[in-house]
Amino acid sequence: MADSLSVDLKASMAWLLAESLDLSTVNDNATLEYSVSIVDGTAADKADLLWHDERVISAVSNDDLDLTALTNTIFGSTVTINFTKVRAILLVNTSTTAGDFLNVGGAGAGSAFDTPFAGDADAKVQVGADSALLLANKKDGWAVTGGTGDILRVHNPGGNSVTYRIAIIGTSS
């Protein structure tokens, strides 16, 4: 029996900015939303692979995720996920301690999954405590190149262990 994947990808920010004046209050009230569905497949706007985990990184350590050899246990069997393209990454830093940052990216020349970072193998994005990072490329995806462009580094530069949750969707071809 074949598997099937469907994903709802959402991010939103709602705000109310109120300024009190002498005789009235002026409000700026709006929402910015991104909401798409990704269905099963390997063409644009589709994905057929999912990997997710909750992980702990020790102080001043790296968690290098090989996007061509991620393992997951599902229904009692270990499955190896081999991405050829990544459509979206959601990473949530679950720490509630100020200063517990995680750096995503920057695995260095020769192995870095750097396509979301404009090909810069040293580029990284900092994700603060109790914060999330969503990277998405629904149409084209980011290419994963086995052996030379397949390591997504999550680095903990701080003095505490940090727990994070991550989900990656992409394609097998």
Write a structural description.
It is a single chain. The protein has 173 residues and is an all-beta fold. It has one domain (44-171): Jelly Rolls (Sandwich), CATH 2.60.120. Helix content is 0%, strand content 57%. The chain has no helices and 14 strands. It has strands spanning 7-20, 25-40, 46-47, 49-57, 61-66, 70-74, 77-81, 85-93, 102-105, 124-127, 131-136, 142-143, 151-156, 162-171. Strands 4, 8, 11, 12 and 14 form a five-stranded antiparallel sheet that branches. It has a four-stranded antiparallel sheet with strand order 5-13-9-10, with no helix packed on it. A hairpin with a 4-residue loop joins strand 1 and strand 2 (25-40). The protein is globular and about 65 Å long. The model has no long low-confidence stretch (mean pLDDT 96).
The profile of the biggest β sheet is: 5 strands, antiparallel
**Domain unit count:** 1
Question: Which structural class fits the helix and strand makeup?
Answer: mainly beta
Which fold does the CATH topology refer to?
Jelly Rolls
Count every beta strand, where a strand is a DSSP E run of 2 or more residues: 14
Number of helices: 0
How far apart the termini lie comes to 20 Å
Strand content: over 45%
* Average pLDDT number: 96
What would you report as the Rg, rounded to the nearest angstrom?
19 Å
Could you name the CATH class? Mainly Beta
Helix percent reads under 10%
**Unreliable spans:** none
Shape assignment: globular
Looking at the overall shape, the CATH architecture is Sandwich
Could you state the order of secondary-structure elements as H and E? EEEEEEEEEEEEEE
